[in-house]
Amino acid sequence: MKAFLRILALGAALISGIGAAYAQNNAISSADWNAYKAKFLDGSGRIVDDANGNISHSEGQGYGLLLAYLAGARADFDLIWSFTKTELLLRDDGLAVWKWEPNANPHVTDPNNATDGDMLIAYALGLAGESWRRQDLLDAGKGIADAIGRAALLRDGKEVLILPAANGFGAKDRTDGPVINISYWVFEAFPVLSNLAPNVDWQALRSAGLGLARDIKLGNAQMPPDWLSLNGEPKPADGFPAEFGYNAIRIPLYLMRAGIDDRKTLEPLLKGMTDGQGNPRTVLLTNVTKDVLSDPGYRMILAMGACVLDRTPIPNELKTFQPTNYYPSTLQLLALSFVARRHGECL
Hints:
- Pfam families: Glyco_hydro_8.
- It comes from Mesorhizobium liriopis.
- By secondary structure, this protein is mostly helical.
- The chain has helices spanning 2-11, 30-40, 58-70, 74-88, 115-131, 135-151, 190-196, 202-215, 250-257, 263-272, 296-310, 316-319, 326-342, and strands at 56-57, 99-100, 108-110, 153-156, 159-162, 179-180, 228-229, 235-236, 243-244, 281-284, 289-292.
- It has a single domain (2-11, 26-341), classed as Glycosyltransferase (Alpha/alpha barrel).
- It contains 13 helices and eleven strands.
- The strands form four sheets. Strands 1-2-3 form a three-stranded antiparallel β-sheet.
- The termini are far apart.
């Protein structure tokens, strides 16, 4: 693994982060945010994953905080943060439990963390704390960012990787470990996390993630799988589908939102996640389409890619936000907010 990670480091450019440059209040209209919160934010402050048994999770709370910040919805932000703080930030290591079920007693049914959720929460706290001059939010974001550095990163010499959770994915936990998920690299967050926790080498983490996004091309599909083993030659992790699936479709979105817009990085991912009819898809590494993704939130990622690479206008039907299910609706708002801030020529 050391040799592989050294190759990644040599092949990845050290691109400085610009995530906070566009992540500002009112990047999401009040109408779009109100439609989102009416569908997915309940009165207790939890974001409801309506396609997953109406559970809540740290990822959803992080997305909710980020979207509320982008909409300038301070009261909603505080409501989401209150639930997150009291119901999920229960672990001794400073990270959030990842899964909360409304019909279970106790509600927390898996106390492990999900590192992308922790990252999104800390990122949103850092943005809001700086913008709104809230030291309480900055302090909370710093605590989570420090905890990620202590408990959820894998260090190998100068290389740094994200473990999907503090437990269960390392070399001591699995015979094919370490196992990673490239979609857990929230690239736009690293500059903010670096300000919150400067003792953590976020630049090395970013560099490794860029190398993975560019270089991991497996099977006939020549795409990265959702779950990747780095024990020896990179390969799909045991016990997970060998596919570019619902996790991985976020990779190009995260890259573009972080200002990473070179064709060498983006084009293979966007092309590989497109079926023969121009629709987004999940794909087995055998290059067999598994699911065609007709939801506007998924289609918006391809449209965003065409805008970023070729200045192609966003189709009219994707400019109007109508919430469907939690996950694609979240991705659509993240994409629309980016295009509005950085590529208004496409709207």
